[in-house]
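FAQ

Q: What does a record look like?
A: Structure on top, sequence underneath. For example:
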């Protein structure tokens, strides 16, 4: 199966609600695995890394671009990083069994859809570029949103590849492309001297005769001077070589490179290369990495997860397991739906059950995400309880806030499981008769997920210093649980009737 990596960058790094909406859009597509998400308030920018089959990667990127165009207004956006769009840049990178040509085709398909459906001007860049002068992203983005607002539609050199010949009033424009693997890598200097960072960036970037395959800017981020680099070919200039070059230039100027950060993901060979270089190893380090050897001989991922549930650690616990049970229920509903569509006997419900499959898949993805969020919420509660007991008020406020978050996650699990129960009941009612028991199992699992989630809502509210503030969550949970129970019982009755001897 072909796999594509997609690394969309959005001009938002501060608003948690918008970031959550972007994450939801990306992960709402079946087959998408979100590997990483990083938001930088100083840059006011977020970078998501996902892998997926080609069509799923395209759909996920489109949904997120649409959310960005609805939620981000570049007229009020401020940040250290250059930007021209709400969804600023969307590159596709070939992974397993995929080629650069596949990614170029994907970029152009996405560009046509974004330009046509969202009316956002699209510029193709890197390997997907239709003009040589658009290969370099920095050249495409030159002038940023404010400058391009005046040029698109008036300067033929700035005619977009897709979409209207005028900038979108709030979402700007977007660069969509295909490229090899790139590492975004930042090195911070000891001083807050932005002029020094700019001078070092100029010295190390390829365009000025510095390191090959390196783009660099000098920025001031959170009061610290940053040399921000894109390493466009890590086999030519890997991160440790870039760091050493910046560090040497800083020392020459009487300063120091004090720390660095990777934005997004890096291949293992980057880490191995740094270790081999600084340890002066004569042989490849990969063969000596214990965890890699363990991974190569490890059992199924499901078995590993079950072990973690059974361990002494309280997370993942009942909340996560409830979400996973709900996801399994949604998977069964989707299965029954797929066994129903396209069959002459069920032509009357064909359209409905195609929609049922889509809904079930969306709910399945959401529940798996909620399982991860439940474990994270528990960790936040543990951190709040670990705060010093004096002064008392800040600790109580922190516990209240953490437990509120820990109650909201299972409530969302309950809401979602309730929807799954209704789908499973409908699948039992009108779906393929040969799979009616599967629909019934799905309904039972959805009911268990809902009850387990309700338990977690109640126990987290009960533990709050001020439980009255969250009484509405308990009331909603109780109502949802009753609704879910009705659907579960309806599904059970349908199954019993269908399999009665």
């Amino acid at each position: 199966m072909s796999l594509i990596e997609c690394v969309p960058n959005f001009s938002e790094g501060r608003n948690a609600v918008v970031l959550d909406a972007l994450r939801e859009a990306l992960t709402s597509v079946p087959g998408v695995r979100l590997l990483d998400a990083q938001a930088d308030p100083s840059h006011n920018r977020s970078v998501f890394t996902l892998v997926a089959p080609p069509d799923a990667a395209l759909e996920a990127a489109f949904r997120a671009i649409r959310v960005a165009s609805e939620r981000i207004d570049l007229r009020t956006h401020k940040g250290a990083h250059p930007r021209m769009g709400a969804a600023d840049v969307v590159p596709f990178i070939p992974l397993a069994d995929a080629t650069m040509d596949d990614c170029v085709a994907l970029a152009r398909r996405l560009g046509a859809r974004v330009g046509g459906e969202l009316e956002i001007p699209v510029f193709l860049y890197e390997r997907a570029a239709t003009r040589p002068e658009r290969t370099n992203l920095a050249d495409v983005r030159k002038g940023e949103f404010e400058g391009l607002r005046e040029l698109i539609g008036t300067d033929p050199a700035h005619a977009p590849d897709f979409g209207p010949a005028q900038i979108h009033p709030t979402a700007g424009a977007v660069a969509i492309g295909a490229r090899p693997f790139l590492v975004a890598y930042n090195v911070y200097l000891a001083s807050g001297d932005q002029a020094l960072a700019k001078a070092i960036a100029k010295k190390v970037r390829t365009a000025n005769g510095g390191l090959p395959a390196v783009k660099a800017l000098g920025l001031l981020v959170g009061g610290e001077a940053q040399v921000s680099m894109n390493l466009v070919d890590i086999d030519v200039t890997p991160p440790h070589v870039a760091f050493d070059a910046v560090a040497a230039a800083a020392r020459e100027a009487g300063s120091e490179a004090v720390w660095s950060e990777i934005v997004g993901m890096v291949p293992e060979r980057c880490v191995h290369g740094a270790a081999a270089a600084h340890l002066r190893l004569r042989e490849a380090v990969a063969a000596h990495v214990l965890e890699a050897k363990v991974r190569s001989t490890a059992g199924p991922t499901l078995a590993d997860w079950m072990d973690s549930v059974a361990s002494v650690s309280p997370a993942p616990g009942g909340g996560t397991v409830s979400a996973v049970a709900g996801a399994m229920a949604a998977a069964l509903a989707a299965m029954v739906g797929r066994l129903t569509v396209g069959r002459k006997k069920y032509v009357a419900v064909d359209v409905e059950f195609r929609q049922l499959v889509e809904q079930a898949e969306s709910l399945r993805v959401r529940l798996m995400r909620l399982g991860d969020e439940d474990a994270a919420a528990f960790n936040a509660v543990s951190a709040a309880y670990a705060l010093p007991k004096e002064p008392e008020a800040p600790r109580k406020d922190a516990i209240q806030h953490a437990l509120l978050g820990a109650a909201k996650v299972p409530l969302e699990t309950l809401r979602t499981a309730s929807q799954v129960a209704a789908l499973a009941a409908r699948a039992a009612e009108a779906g393929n008769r040969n799979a009616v028991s599967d629909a019934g199992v799905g309904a039972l699992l959805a009911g268990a997920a809902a009850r387990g989630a309700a338990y977690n809502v109640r126990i987290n509210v009960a533990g709050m210093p001020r439980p009255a503030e969250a009484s509405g969550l308990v009331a909603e949970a109780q109502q949802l649980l009753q609704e879910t129970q009705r659907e579960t019982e309806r599904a059970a009755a349908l199954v019993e009737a269908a399999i009665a001897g």
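Q: Is there anything notable about this one?
A: The chain has a mean pLDDT of 91.
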